[in-house]
Each structure stands twice: as structure tokens, then as C-alpha cells.
Specification:
The protein is an alpha+beta fold. Helices cover about 40% and strands about 10% of the residues. The chain contains 13 helices and ten strands. Strand 5 and strand 6 form a beta hairpin. The chain binds adenosine-5'-triphosphate and magnesium ion (MG).
Length: about 425
């Protein structure tokens, strides 16, 4: 459980003992006045703030209680600067807090989902499409997110209300050398990094993550939106260690057929494809994107127009540059259901020669991965023992929280050059 930050010492916080919330209505950097709490995660609190009639989002990390990771998050986000990432304005310290000032965005997908309980197939596929864009963007810049979940995706505001943004890079990490593009070794970690409910099977097995893990998590997020829940939610358990193991077991035993039953086949194909990616394999984002377009235009017979379940006529009026969102689609006519060919199908029945070649490559990668896994076996057993001991200690303190993060954000400290 995160505690409320201690009463800060600086002038800015002089009245904080009179107010239950030590941040709300206070000014930071002599400019930004915190006017509304937007969200609170396990590592930070986010407020809407105002300065000269403009609005910003300020993320606070308590200096004395936190792990001092917000600065790294700011560095990663500034480096990643791109169309689906919140713009970073500044980073600094004020009293007890590290503060990240960024572009103000709208509601998170979790907030929207909580009001609706489910998303339509069309909405889910259009979100999936944008998720492929932003993940490809960060992956191409050598970064993996490692905490893909509905709370970490937010919609844009005003003219950008069609756009999906990815935030919370507190667990993000560089996964390969930017010079050689060689991926870092596939090793056993000491504990799970991420959020158990959406974590990939390999992440739950505490293995080093790569691009495939962000993509597999995305599949669980999408199925959560479609189904309204995931089969491994709400398992009755006593200790956290057990909980992770039980979630892992349930995830492993849940076939893609069961998970995606009653939904367009493309979702099952997505789960199969991402679950079968090799550690260092280049994901075919284009194929995945095309499949999401197919779901909307072919299966649903709808237009790929970024009109979501919650979009109002007022939202549509405000929109500008929606065309930019479809840049990754190439020449595909978003209304035409005829022109899509079998290449966009991820099922093995429709493999082209190119697909067969990539299959060979994939098999080689898998073999390499297996060898690496075996060579790490002794180390793994040793670390697993250690990991279990430290996890058990934590279990005594916290029980049965369905989707909390692990607190190894220290791992996010990474060199970007
Ligand atoms: N720029 C922003 N604009 C609007 N809302 C935001 C913004 N950044 C964060 N939020 C809201 O605050 C919540 C918490 O932010 P964030 O995920 O960065 O914090 P965290 O403490 O690292 O979370 P976690 O529990 O995932 O570790 C988000 O889920 C979102 O609802
Ligand atoms: Mg978060």
C-alpha cells in the first residue's frame, strides 16, 4: 500500500497539514497550480495543473518514499518523443517531490472501461491498431515498455481525442544495443516485472523480456476489453507467490480458442502469433495492423474511422489530422473490404513463401533461445531460490491484490546511447 507523502518542508507546502491532500491547490515551480487529482499508481500521483490558462499533467514522486525513478522516466519519454507519447515539458524537484511536467491527456482506457464494462469489436480493433503503431515506434527506438495495461493507455484531448497515447515508462528498458541491434541476453530474472494480469507467460516465468512480451500483453488487454474480464482474474489465493504461479498456470492452460471464443478469428490469431514469437524475433507489426483493419472493415463491415464506443458528435467536430493516424496503413482503402488479401491473415493456412522463410528464421531463433535457456539453467535454479525467499517476505505484507506492480523499477535505469 502506498502511503500519503509526508508533510513536505518547503514554503510551497506550508499549509499542507490543514489539507488532507498535500499537493492539491498548491503551486509548484512558482507556476503550476495543482487543481485536480487525475490518477494514482503504485509509484506516483498525477494531477491536472494550470498555468496562465493552459493545462498540464504533473506526475509526483515522493523523494523520501519513492525509488527516485521519475527522472529516468522523464529521460526515456523525452528520448522517445513521438506521436503517441505525451510531450514532456520539464522535470524538476520541489520540496519532497520529483515532478514531471507533461502534456495533459484524457481518460485512461481503464477509466473508460470501468464505465462501460466492455468495448465493441470495432473499438477494440481500432485501439489495437494504434497500439501496434506506438509499440513499433518505441521498439524501433530500442525500448520496451514492460507494463502494458489499460491504465497506461490514455486518450488525447480536444482535437486529438481520436489518438491513443502510451504513458508510464517507469518500467521501460532498453532491450538491445542501438549500435549492433544485438538483443541483451535471455536470462532468468529475480522477480516479475510488470502487472501479473496482463504479463506475458515468459514475464510471469521471470524471464528477460523483449518486444514479444509487450505484444503478448497487448493481446490480453484487448481480450479484457472484448470479454469484460480475463479467466485468471479473481483467483482465490493466500499468498502473492501463489497468486503469480496460479495466474501463470491459468494463463498457460487457457487456449487461444477459449480466450477468444465468440470473437473474430483475428484475435485468436493475434494471441497465437505473439505467444509463439521467439525472444529476438522481429515482430511483423504490419501484418498485425492489417489484421486489425480487417476486423473492422471485413468482419464488422464498418469504416475504420476512429469513432469509438464513447466518441460523441462533438468529439468528431473537434478532430484534426485524423489522417495522420492512418499513416502506417499504406495504400489500404479503409472502407474497402475487398482489396485485403490473405497476406494479412496470420493463420498458418495462408502462408506465403515469405512467411515460410520467416518461419525458418523463427525456428532457428527458437533453437538459439532454447540453448540460452539451458545454459542458464544452473543460474536460474540458484536465482529462483533467492527470488522465492525475497518474494515470500513481501507476501507476508501484502495479500491478494489482483493487479499490483512489482516494485523493481530500479531496472528501468538504462543508458539510452
Ligand atoms: N499526461 C497525463 N494526462 C492525463 N492523465 C494522466 C497523465 N499521466 C498519467 N495520467 C493518469 O494517472 C494515472 C497514473 O499515472 P502513471 O501510470 O504514470 O503512474 P504510476 O504510479 O507509474 O502507475 P503504475 O501504478 O502503473 O505504476 C494513469 O493511469 C492516468 O490515468
Ligand atoms: Mg501506470
Amino acid at each position: 500500500m502506498e502511503e500519503r507523502p509526508k508533510t513536505p518542508r518547503s514554503e510551497n507546502f506550508g499549509q499542507s497539514h490543514l489539507n488532507k491532500d498535500p499537493i492539491l491547490n498548491k503551486k509548484f515551480f512558482s507556476k503550476y497550480k495543482a487543481i485536480k487529482k487525475l490518477g494514482e499508481g503504485s509509484f506516483g500521483k498525477v494531477y491536472k495543473a494550470e498555468y496562465k490558462g493552459e493545462y498540464y499533467a504533473l506526475k509526483f514522486e515522493s523523494h523520501s518514499e519513492g525509488q527516485n525513478l521519475l527522472e529516468t522516466e522523464a529521460t526515456i519519454m523525452s528520448y522517445l518523443k513521438g506521436p503517441n507519447i505525451p510531450l514532456i515539458k520539464s522535470f524538476g524537484f520541489s520540496g519532497d517531490y520529483n515532478i514531471l511536467v507533461m502534456q495533459l491527456l484524457g481518460l485512461s482506457l481503464e477509466d473508460i472501461f470501468n464505465k462501460r464494462q466492455k468495448f465493441s469489436v470495432k473499438t477494440t480493433a481500432m485501439l489495437g491498431y494504434q497500439m501496434m503503431n506506438v509499440l513499433q515506434f518505441i521498439h524501433d527506438k530500442h525500448i520496451i515498455h514492460r507494463d502494458i495495461k489499460p491504465d497506461n493507455y490514455v486518450m488525447g484531448l480536444n482535437d486529438m481525442n481520436a489518438v491513443l497515447y502510451l504513458l508510464d515508462f517507469g518500467l521501460a528498458k532498453k532491450y538491445r544495443s542501438s549500435k549492433t541491434l544485438e538483443q541483451y541476453p535471455y536470462i532468468k530474472k529475480k522477480k516479475l516485472t510488470g502487472t501479473a494480469r496482463y504479463a506475458s507467460i515468459h514475464a510471469l516465468e521471470e524471464m528477460e523480456q523483449s518486444r514479444r512480451d509487450d505484444l503478448e500483453s497487448t493481446g490480453y488487454v484487448l481480450m479484457y476489453f472484448l470479454r469484460g474480464n480475463l479467466p485468471w482474474q479473481g483467483l482465490k489465493l493466500k499468498t502473492k507467490d501463489n497468486r503469480y504461479q496460479k495466474i501463470l498456470d491459468k494463463k498457460k492452460e487457457t487456449t487461444s480458442e477459449e480466450l477468444c471464443k465468440n470473437f473474430p478469428v483475428e484475435f485468436k490469431q493475434y494471441i497465437d502469433y505473439t505467444r509463439n514469437l521467439a525472444y529476438a524475433e522481429n515482430p511483423d507489426y504490419d501484418k498485425l495492423r492489417k489484421n486489425f483493419i480487417n476486423v473492422v472493415t471485413k468482419t464488422e463491415g464498418e469504416t475504420f474511422d476512429f469513432i469509438y464506443d464513447w466518441t460523441t458528435p462533438g468529439d468528431i467536430k473537434k478532430r484534426k489530422n485524423v489522417d495522420k493516424l492512418t499513416q502506417g496503413i499504406g495504400n489500404i482503402n479503409l472502407k474497402n473490404t475487398e482489396k485485403e488479401n490473405s497476406k494479412s491473415d496470420l493463420s498458418s493456412e495462408n502462408e506465403s513463401n515469405e512467411d515460410n522463410q520467416s518461419k525458418d528464421k523463427k525456428e532457428k531463433e527458437k533453437e538459439k533461445e532454447k540453448k540460452e535457456k539451458n545454459s542458464n539453467k544452473n543460474k536460474i535454479n540458484e536465482e529462483a531460490k533467492q527470488g522465492k525467499t525475497s518474494n515470500n517476505k513481501k507476501n507476508e505484507e501484502e495479500e491478494d491484490d489482483d493487479d499490483d506492480n512489482t516494485n523493481d523499477k530500479v531496472e528501468s535505469k538504462c543508458c539510452l546511447m
